[in-house]
Write a structure and sequence with these properties.
This protein has 2 domains: 134 residues, Response regulator (Rossmann fold), CATH 3.40.50; 75 residues, Arc Repressor Mutant, subunit A. It is built from 11 helices and 6 strands. The longest helix has 15 residues. It has a 6-stranded parallel β-sheet, sandwiched between helices.
Length: 234
Amino acid sequence: MRQNADTASQPPWRGASEIMPIRILIVDDHSVVRQGLRMFLGLDPDLEIIGEAQDGAEGISKARELKPDVVLMDLLMPVMDGITAIGHIRREMPDVEVLALTSVLEDASVVGAVRAGAIGYLLKDTEADELCRAIKAAAGGQVQLSPKAAARLMREVRAPESPEALTERETEVLRWLAGGQSNKEIAHTLGIGEKTVKTHVSNVLGKLGVQSRTQAALYAVRIGLAPADELSRA
């Protein structure tokens, strides 16, 4: 990781009166990587490292125990790989968002991670301040994809077959989700509560038969509900 001197901007989902930091679990089989992440993420007062794991199986166990807001998940690990672990965490703990953080940029890995339920896919050469912003955005429900990962996903991920029809409100929520808005931003845009937005997002995922907001956003692009360049920017 390369650290940038700039500090991360205030996350849009967080109000001035809210002081709870984002709780992060790091899952990576390399201790040097875990130590590096702990060091520079710890410099941001909005972030709190609550635990580490060295493989996917331990990551699942720690997620159950610690209940993080965001898991930073490597993909290539012994015992249990990251894609398998992502699937377990998202099925068992749907409120926990998972960011794939890896050095691997193969189509199968990108597609596999997103299908398993990862909200984003970032490479380990991401700048430190960019990673901090991505974690904050992911905690707020924003899709986080490196441009190269987004390009691969657009080629490889197919739209769900015969999805259940969305209501007008659910369609609106999906449109703004695909445009990169957080739950709080969508709530403000539509004049509804943030908890209501979360309920709509959950309903959208269920009706589309997908595991993550990223998959839902891809579906929105596929059907023309949102432009592809917005997904890349998100």
